[in-house]
């Protein structure tokens, strides 16, 4: 039996394991997929760093991202890299932590989490029970948290719930693009029935963060077995309306990666995101999630093939697209095909309703300072489109962004309190690093991988303190926690940095 069971070999889980090892505690890490490193090793290789660089600190900076820098012979952190480099560093850090790492281990139902009174005692995954004294949920889905019976939410709260002006259905802040004829059909959904500011169960769009290469050994974009060019009718109209000359103008502006590679993201109004497909993912069974992953992969892979081959596109556009391909040295064992990312970018899953709920107000003065800070952060409120729907004769609405423009609503430099990382009461030995306690709007800023890493560090130190004292995590000693975090470089306050773009 290990001292701590960590569910999720994400950057958050890895950083928690590393912190615990430095305190002399043992860990078992259960990872639901076949790979470690989370989305950082699974395709998201253009890292979203804070607008105040000093906020990215601790072992996340000095060991994870500086470890990636060392892969390229650089002294210091590196935030543009290849997935294979991130996975190598992830494996190395887990080995350094002495963690037992088991991949392909999924928590399925509440029967897979054993509790005695107010404590989790064991988790079953892959048909095997794993016992520990403390548990950390560092997964993107929050299955350990949810199956342990901890309160959580999915989707968007009403604006009235936490008095958040940006919460709920936001048609006035939506993108509107056109003309489209027709302006209906996949992936455009029905007109929502909610009133402005109403809650719904809808999540922002997910996507695959693809990696492309122009190398001579590139693998061509293959035609998927369920390929349907009609899916890309809106994209075709949008490319024509914007006079987009080729795939290079969509992907190369995002910054070149080492090895001559390029990162894909949403890019255009219609692009690699697939709004609507993600809604069932957070609370879905693993079978339902696998179906969603397959739909997202079909959309992305079909789009790449379409861009390179569809006769409706100009010859020059298709020729430009064919100068790109999939990298043979990345994702070789991906279940979705060689060269294609093995991880779907789950931008937002479940969110715990914990001891403190981080909301829009916590990101802005005067509520941005906290007495129990475990990290600092500053990144604009970033929610991708939640849904497409038709409006009038030729408009498609992309609703779910928090501004309706290419500029996200700004935040003030803020502190994240320890109370977002554990349940209010009722579960004494659980911390949650990624699906932490926040509203949809509150989550939209701190939902970045470097911050998840730092919150994982805080979860590791909370676990270590709880194990040492025998007290519930809710009864933690903040001065001792702060001292433990700063011992390995965490930055809990930046009083001389008053930032606003």
Automatic annotation (TrEMBL):
Xref: InterPro entries: FAD/NAD-bd_sf (IPR036188), HdrA-like (IPR039650)
Any Pfam family hit: FAD_oxidored
Record's keyword terms, sorted: 4Fe-4S, Iron, Iron-sulfur, Metal-binding, Oxidoreductase
EC number annotated for this UniProt entry: 1.-.-.-
Top-rank taxon, per record: Bacteria
GO MF terms held by the record: oxidoreductase activity
PANTHER family xref list: COB--COM HETERODISULFIDE REDUCTASE IRON-SULFUR SUBUNIT A (PTHR43498:SF1), FERREDOXIN:COB-COM HETERODISULFIDE REDUCTASE SUBUNIT A (PTHR43498)
Name recorded for this polypeptide: FAD-dependent oxidoreductase
Organism: Glycomyces mayteni
